[in-house]
């Protein structure tokens, strides 16, 4: 169970060393974002359901936290975490067992449901996705479930921001040719200004292999323009660019190959990082990579001049 649910810790550009909790089966999601590092969505759904036994998730997360001492435990599955109908139960159980920082990265699409907002309120840090406020752009970049409504989602995020007592952050992924225009930046920034107690708005670009091979990051001028427009609305202290890869400070304990397989189902790994991890453990990196590929669980793909390890099942 721990090999399926808990992975890492991995270095997070937002949260520090993050122990991941994969609380949703692959790949159940409300969106099928063109840039998703996990690949295309197999099960496009908006109905919440049970995925794992809540107590088992809590026990595995707390056990791994005590063994690996990360900065934060983050619900960041290879689908949308709020599809898990037991999300709030799991968060409360973890908090009862251990006083730790609990984060969740969500695409925000189900926040129009009061039970989802209630569940997420048990987390210390909540990261909301806001890639656009334009309906046509939303359809292109996030490819949402047909029953979702963008305006309803955006209104619900404002409601949540008024209720939530923890640290609220947002992330906006910029994709060349889709949402990398000034009117897009202005619409997003003006919306984010409406969120109560927003701690930080992160502007991101794809740095790992996306679901669609044609997805590319915008050029530097476009990213800097987005930054300046966000700063104009939100202030310098509330805007940050995340356009560089995460550091290579992964902390894998136990069997390296098993840890790599667990991680890449949620977080593709740069080949150079795998080589570094193997060398630190005194293992031949070429053998590790060869064995992983031969196992049939892993494949190598290239994106923006870098090679990555991803799951073999990824389309």
Structure description:
The protein has 315 residues and is an alpha/beta fold. It has 11 helices and 13 strands. The strands form 3 sheets. Strands 1-2-5-6-7-8-9-10 form an 8-stranded mixed beta sheet. Strands 11-13-12 form a 3-stranded antiparallel beta sheet. Strands 3-4 form a two-stranded parallel sheet. The protein is globular. The two termini are 25 Å apart. The mean pLDDT is 92.
- Total number of strands: 13
Strand content: 15-25%
Order of strands in the sheet with the most strands? 1-2-5-6-7-8-9-10
- Sketch the topology as an H/E string, one letter per element: HEEEEHEHEHEHHEHEHEHEHHEE
Number of helices: 11
Class per helix and strand makeup = alpha/beta
- Contiguous low-pLDDT stretches (5 residues minimum) are none
Rounded to an integer in angstroms, the radius of gyration calculated over CA atoms is 19 Å
How is the biggest beta sheet arranged?
8 strands, mixed
- Fraction of residues in helices? 25-40%
| Mean pLDDT level | 92
Distance between the termini: 25 Å
- Identify the overall geometry: globular
């Amino acid at each position: 169970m721990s090999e399926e649910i808990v992975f890492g810790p991995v270095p997070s550009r937002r949260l520090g060393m993050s122990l991941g909790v994969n609380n949703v089966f692959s790949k159940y999601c409300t969106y099928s974002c063109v840039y998703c590092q996990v690949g295309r969505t197999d099960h496009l759904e908006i109905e919440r359901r049970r995925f794992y036994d809540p107590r088992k998730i809590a026990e595995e997360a707390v056990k791994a936290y005590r063994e690996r001492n990360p900065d934060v435990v983050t619900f960041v599955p290879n689908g949308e975490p709020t599809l898990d109908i037991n999300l709030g139960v799991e968060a409360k159980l973890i908090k009862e067992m251990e006083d730790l920082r609990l984060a969740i990265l969500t695409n925000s699409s189900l926040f129009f449901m009061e039970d989802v907002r209630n569940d997420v309120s048990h987390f210390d840090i909540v990261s909301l996705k806001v890639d656009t406020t334009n309906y046509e752009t939303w359809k292109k970049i996030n490819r949402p479930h047909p029953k979702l409504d963008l305006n309803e989602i955006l209104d619900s995020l404002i409601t949540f921001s008024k209720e939530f007592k923890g640290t609220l952050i947002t992330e906006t992924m910029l994709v060349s040719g889709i949402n990398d225009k000034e009117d897009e930046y202005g619409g997003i920034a003006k919306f984010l200004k409406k969120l109560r107690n927003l701690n930080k708005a992160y502007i991101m670009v794809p740095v790992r292999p996306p679901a669609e091979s044609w997805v590319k990051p915008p050029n530097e001028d476009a990213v800097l323009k987005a930054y300046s427009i966000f700063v104009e609305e939100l202030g310098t202290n509330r805007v940050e660019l995340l356009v560089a890869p995460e550091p290579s400070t992964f902390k894998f304990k136990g069997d390296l190959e098993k840890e790599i397989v667990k991680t890449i189902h949620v977080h593709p790994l740069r080949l150079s990082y795998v080589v570094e991890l193997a060398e630190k453990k005194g293992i031949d990196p070429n053998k590790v990579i060869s064995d992983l590929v031969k196992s049939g669980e892993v494949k190598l793909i290239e994106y923006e001049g870098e090679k990555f390890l991803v799951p073999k099942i990824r389309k």
